[in-house]
Structures are given as C-alpha cells and as structure tokens.
C-alpha cells in the first residue's frame, strides 16, 4: 500500500494524510455543499453548520469519499455538527463495508456548530471510546441520525503510519 498524499510530521512522530488530488467526493442528492467534505479547509470550532460544509436534513443521506488508493489507516479526525450521531463506514473495495468510527451527540466539546473529533492519541480533539477500527481503507461513507436532524460534515483527515 502506498501513502495517500503529502504527509506532515507533528509531535511524537504522528503523520497526517492531507487530501489527495486523486480523491473524489460524492453525496446523496439530499446533501448541499458536497465538495466541502474533503477539500482540506477545516471549519472553525463552533462555526455555523451550513457554512462551507456538506450539510443535510435527511437521515438517509450519505457523504462518500474515494481516496483513489488503499492506505493503512491508523486514525481519523473529522469535523461534524456537534449534536448528532454519526457513523463512519470504510471499505477497501467499495462493496464490503465496516464501521470504523461511531460518534455520539454527546462526544466532543463544542456546544454549538461544528466540532472536531479525533481518534489519535495526543490530539487535543481526541475522544476516547469511539469504537475506532484501524486498517486498510480506500472508501468512506459518512451518515448521521438522531440529534436535532440538522447534519453536517466539514472535513475528514485520514491518519496513516509514518
């Protein structure tokens, strides 16, 4: 497996995978602003859930990301609206899906707007107990339910081993 794209070294040797040119994003028809879901531009903590984000009000909607190649995922950081439940599914082939992250409305630290959630040890936005499952991945499928019924995703960051 090759690395997704350019990597930036952080404290403790952590490497982050930035959005790659080969990655593509697609969304259900109910999603507004689909391209914001994986453009490398992180929403500010607490910003309005419809500003420069992929947002929707139908629980059946999904945001899909194809990284363009398989990477060995060691962690995820994601920006989502603060008061809803989110499910992140992953796949190597786009056919068989596994839940790799489960975010509950009570997770995170923001009381309004967009919240950044991470699975990476040492990250200030880390939330323990998310049920994160590392491993090889190419595709992601993000959906939401419960909460106030106003859903949003601002960005996804795939962490890989150095």
Automatic annotation (TrEMBL):
The keyword Signal applies. Residues 1-22 form the signal peptide. It comes from the Bacteria. PROSITE patterns: FA58C_3, PROKAR_LIPOPROTEIN. InterPro entries: FA58C, Galactose-bd-like_sf. The keyword DNA-binding does not apply. Pfam families: F5_F8_type_C. Keywords: Signal. Residues 3-161 form the F5/8 type C domain. This is Discoidin domain-containing protein.
């Amino acid at each position: 497996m090759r690395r997704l794209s350019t990597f930036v070294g952080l404290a403790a040797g952590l490497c982050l995978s930035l959005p790659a040119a080969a990655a593509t994003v697609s969304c259900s028809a109910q999603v507004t602003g689909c391209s914001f879901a994986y453009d490398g531009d992180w929403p500010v903590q607490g910003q309005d859930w419809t500003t420069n984000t992929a947002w929707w009000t139908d629980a059946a909607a999904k945001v899909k990301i194809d990284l363009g190649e398989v990477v060995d995922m060691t962690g995820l950081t994601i920006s989502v609206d603060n008061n809803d439940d989110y499910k992140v599914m992953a796949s190597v082939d786009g056919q068989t899906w596994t839940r790799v992250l489960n975010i509950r409305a009570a997770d995170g630290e923001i009381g309004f707007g967009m919240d950044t959630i991470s699975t990476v040890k040492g990250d200030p936005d880390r939330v323990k107990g998310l049920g994160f499952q590392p491993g090889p991945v190419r595709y992601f499928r993000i959906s939401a339910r419960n909460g106030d019924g106003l859903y949003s995703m601002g960005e996804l960051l795939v962490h890989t081993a150095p």
